Structures are given as structure tokens and as C-alpha cells.
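Hello K.,

You asked for the raw outputs rather than the summary table, so here they are, unedited. I folded two proteins back to back in the same session to keep the settings identical. This is the first:
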Amino acid sequence: MDKIDSAIRYGRMIARHLQGELTPAEQEELQQWLGEDENNHKLLETFHDEEFVQSGLSTLHSIDKNEAWDKISRKLDLPISIRRRPGYRAYWWAAAILLVTLSAGGWFLLQQSVTTPGTQVSVTRTHSPAEILPGTDKATLTLSDGTTINLDSAQNGQLASQGAARILKHEDGSLVYKVSGKTGEEIIYNTVSTPRGGQYRLTLPDGSRVWLNAASEIRFPAVFASDERQVEIKGEVYFEVEKAFDKQKRKLPFIVQVNEMKVEVLGTHFNINAYADEVAAKTTLLEGSVKVLSGTSQHELVPGEQANVRPNESVKVLADVDVEEVMAWKDGLFNFSNADIHGIMRQVSRWYDVDVRYTAEVPARTFSGKIRRSANLTNVLMILEKSGIHFKVEGKNIVVSP
């Protein structure tokens, strides 16, 4: 029997055993398998632990099943033809059961590919009974006169008007600015902001589309000026900028102001991460071209490049950055590549609206892997505890210890 057939067979057998559905012959075969390796017996005992099973089932909802299958396929050294066979992919969980057995405590393989070689899974069951849920689509719109509108609870349809702009909430929950008639000369500003635990998307008056990550903000004119388009942001924002022209058919620049940094574009897709608690403001270009200016320093990016700007320093450019990692937040993922625990926990803090406290200096380890942002906080911490670092949830606080 090859590895994948064995995985599927014993995976099914364990499941049927737990439901009391094994035939006498199958029961005898299972007993023989249990006697072949002490770890096999330990695995079966683990699945009798109701708390373990419940947390495991909950975690399964948070993982990328295709990636899990690919990881398991590589671990089992399966041929490419088998890896791509649809029927086998449906039984990735069965293969994972065998992997748990083979790796003695490798339940982590079921969860994600956050890897720290040589460490032992240690899930501390001290989390708060009140589960902390992931963030959702929510934001606040502040009009020019200071009026605020809670966008996640607002009804669909027209919410307000600002000069020549009508502000609409679409059925998909996004905010859209529609400009009609004479725009006039007066520039009035609106602000959309997300709290910790929130994200939002909107369409600006020129048709450009914007996505806000948690704890972020964009300030913009309700109607853009005739000679330029300028916005200000905080936190992390992704832009898909529409090309625009003035009456003389000249291209109108689109300018993003972030503290002392300025990003100038015409029509392009890019992401800016400029949280105050991060070391540098990062502008990553996906399509088109942008110019990043800071003080007397400037640099024009090409797709795949990232400009890093630190206070009182010139622009530094990184080539061939992992765009998938940068844009993971927009795609509903945490994507870590050699990330330290402090950087990871800053993301966790923003998305789950929690504060993080460290009891001591944590080991200098890095993490790589993907976790769905739809996962509950407990599941994320279970995955991260693979490193040997421990977490305790106290209300809306996470205590991190070595």
C-alpha cells in the first residue's frame, strides 16, 4: 500500500472508529496498526480529547486547504500526477492524519506552514472563554461639517451630498462618490476611517478605487480640483487609480500625501503601508509607475519594486518584493515571510482589536506561512504557538511570553 492510500485508509478508519462503525475485521486491522508504533496509539487517544477535536475543527476552517494539500503532498513525496488528481485532493485531511502520526506532535501541519524547525507544538489552554472574532467591514465617514456616519450600519442608497457630489452606499457595502453638474471652485474634504478590527473600500469622485486596512484613514475632496487630485492617508491603503484629464486633455496627476512622504501617480495600482508603529513607510507598485518623494530624495518605481521611507532618511528601493505577501491583507490573509513575532503581533493587534503585552524578551525567531484573516483569534494563536512562544488572552489583551 503506498503512502497516500495508507493515509486515506487509516484516516477513514480512525473516523469510523470514533463513530463506532468499524467491522470486526477493520477493528482488528486498526488494532494491528496501533501496535506498530506508539505514536499511532497516542494519535488515537488525542482524538478522544473533545477540546482538542473542537479546536482542531475550528482551525480547519481557517486554513488554505489547497496549500495544505500541496504541503502534505510534498511531505509524502507524491508524484506530480497524484498531487494534481482531484479525487485525492478531497482527502487531504486523511493524509494530514497520517502526517500527524509520522511527525509525533505535528498537528501543526494541519494548521499552517508557519515553520520553526526543531520546535514542539505547545498549545496552552488559557485563552479567554469569550472568543475574539476577526475584523469585519466597518468604517466611519466624516463630512466637511463634522457630521459622522457609521458606514457598516448605514442603509444602502444615498447617505449625503457634498457640493456636486452624491455619496452612495452600494448593496455590496462599499461607498461611492458620484459627481454631476458644475463642480464649482470650493474644495470640501471628507474622511473615511477604519477602526482596529475594521476594513473598508470606496470609490473616489474620479472613479479611483480604494481599500483601507484596519486602523487606517483617507482624507479627500468630495469633488477633486480641476488641475490635480490629492488625498492624504494614514495606516495602510491600496489604490487602483483611474487616469483623468483636464479640459486641455492633459493627464491629471494623483498625489498621495503620507506625513513627509509624497507619492505621485497618473493611473496605476499600488499599496502604501504607513502605520505609525512600523519602522518605515512602504510603497509597493503592482502596475504602472509611481514617483516616491521624501525631502530632497525621490525615486520612480517599476512594478514589483517597493520604496521604504524612514524619518529623516532618503528613499530606499527594494526590487522584486513578494507582492503576494504585501497584498495578502486585501485578499483575506495574513502572509508572513521570515517575520518576527513583534511584526506579526502588530498585525494581530490591528485586525482583532486587541492590545499586546510582553512579559519578557521573546526569542529572536522568524515565521513563514499563511493564515486566513477570517480565523478566530484563538486559532491564530494556536498556530503561532508552534514556535514555543506562549500566549494568554486576558479580555482584550494578549500576554506574550517565551
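The second followed immediately with the same parameters:
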Amino acid sequence: MMKRKTNQKYPGRSLTGWLAGGALLFLLTACGGDTSLPYEDGAPDVPASGELVPVVMEAMVENGSVTRATTTTLNSGSIGVFRTAPVSTWCPAQYNVPYTNSGSGWQATDTDNKVLVGGEDASLHAYYPYNSVTFDTTVKTQTTLTVKDYTVNNDLCYAAAPTAVINNKNPKASFVLKHAYARFKLSITRNDNYPNDCKITKLVMQPVSAGSNFYTTRTMDISKSSGDVTQLGGNIAANWTPDLSALVMYTTGIAKSVENTEIDKLFPPQEFSAGVGLKLTLTIDALEYKVTIPDDILSALKAGYESIVKLEVQSKAIEVLGVNIRQWTDDSIGKGDSFLD
């Protein structure tokens, strides 16, 4: 049986507020001192090159626009780390191992459960926030993305692999964690000439052509990069209809000169079918209004980007004033790079 040397315990604490947007950079470094893990007599033979080295973390958050990136050190919170290869009887795979920073550096939350690397190159993956999603019991690096409210805790980020080869001779693993979701937002205003309360009681979002690409739920494997066509799975949906009953747009309506942005959602990333736009149907003051967003201005909901659709409610119609698609960073609202208007 393998014995591990342990010295400290670090309490877990959830990370809130550090990631309004951007990517996370995690640096895994070897523990100081004697990091070998000796075996008792009778344990499986381990080659000298297979000495296991535990790791700890240093974490930074990357902010800014595409052309001006900065990093901020994270001093609290938890992430989950996976080692899926190599796998052997003396070094089995490790799944969803939590690492926590309680103010004195990043450590394994459970000092008896550290991610270990040996002489062979390791396959490592990570995600944040820890326990913000559940993973499949068979494909243990696969989770499910569903449409949900945008919040810091819902903002799943992941790294499919470190930026360099990792083994016990090079145990420093840098992870750049990226957004798993696309962010979709409606910015709704009312024209000064609109005569009623502007109460929006129903919203239906769907592709213009039935059966076209549109996803509200998708599986995602965090061990695969976004360029891997097998990273995402799932079946297309007919439409999406959110519950509006607790929103101001439903209860009191949208006032004049007020921009309503209550529809702020995380969507599974997806590309819409070529030539097929999105159709929005809104019930406003008991009347139904329809508007189409052409695919030449919104062809996809891209992971790591937010799409802001600007609508104006007029007396007899809804007009699309514009669509802003920009990199999703913590300062993107009102200050980010605008790629499309």
C-alpha cells in the first residue's frame, strides 16, 4: 500500500467574484522538499523513472481585450483537476481532485488526495468552479451544458490540457482555462411613442426553419479541445422559452428611456445552420410580435463570446437595432471590443 507524506490541511472555500470573465491561468509546481512516495515491502515494483511527484498550484486570472491582456493572481477558491493518463495498477487515474487556496497558497484540499505525475507524460485537465457541474459516471470528463442564468458560479471554465508536456521531470503545468459557454443577452428598449405598459409575458427563441441547428442542452468533454469535433454532443431543440414571471419586464413592464437586460443567459456553444436565422416571438401587452435575426449578423453562439441583441419595441413592430458580438471579459459590458454592429 502506498504511503504519502502529509503535513497540512487546507479548508475548502468557494471562489466568488474572481471570474466575471476572461480565462484562468493555472501553474502547477512540484512540492518542496522530499516529494517521493516510497512503497512498503511487497508493493508493486515502480521503475526509478516512475517516481511519483505531487503538485500544488499557483493561479492567475487573465483579463482584458484581445490586444491588451493582463493577469491577476487568485488567492482563494477551488478548482477540479483530472489526470486521465497514464494509468496503471500502482498509479490509477485521478478524477475531479479539488485544489483550494485559503490565503496561503494553492494546495490539495484533501492532503491525502493529490494529483501525481510520474516518468511518463501525463494527460491533465482542469475546470472551475469546483463542483459547479456534475460529470458522467462512465465518461468521467464529460459534463452537460444547459441554458442557465449568467452568474459567476454558473460560468464553467475548463482547460483540455496544459501548455507543455508534464512528467516528474517537468511537473510545472500551465493551464489556460477558457469559457465553456456562450453568453446571450437581450437589450430591450421601448420607443417613446409606444402607447401601452410594454409588459413582456412570453418569449420564444427558435430557428427560422424547423429542424435546423439549435441547442439548449449539449454534452461536453473537458479533456477535448474546442477544435475537436467530438468535444460537443447533443440533440437539436425546437425552441427555447424562458420563465419571465419574476422579471420586471413581466410584472410592471419596460419603462420609457430604460434599457432592460434581464435576459442574460449562458448557452451551449453552437453554430446555426447555414442561411438560417433566429426568430424571436414576444408577447407584449397581450399582442404577439415576431422579429428575425439574419444569420449574416448572428451565425453562431461562440464559447467565450457574448452576443447582445438590441431590440426596440415600437407601436406596431419590433426592430432589431443591432447585434454586438465581442470577446467575453470582465470589462466587456460597455467597454469591450465590438466586432459587429
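The first strand starts at residue 23 and ends at 30.

Happy to rerun anything if the numbers look odd on your end.

Regards,
P.
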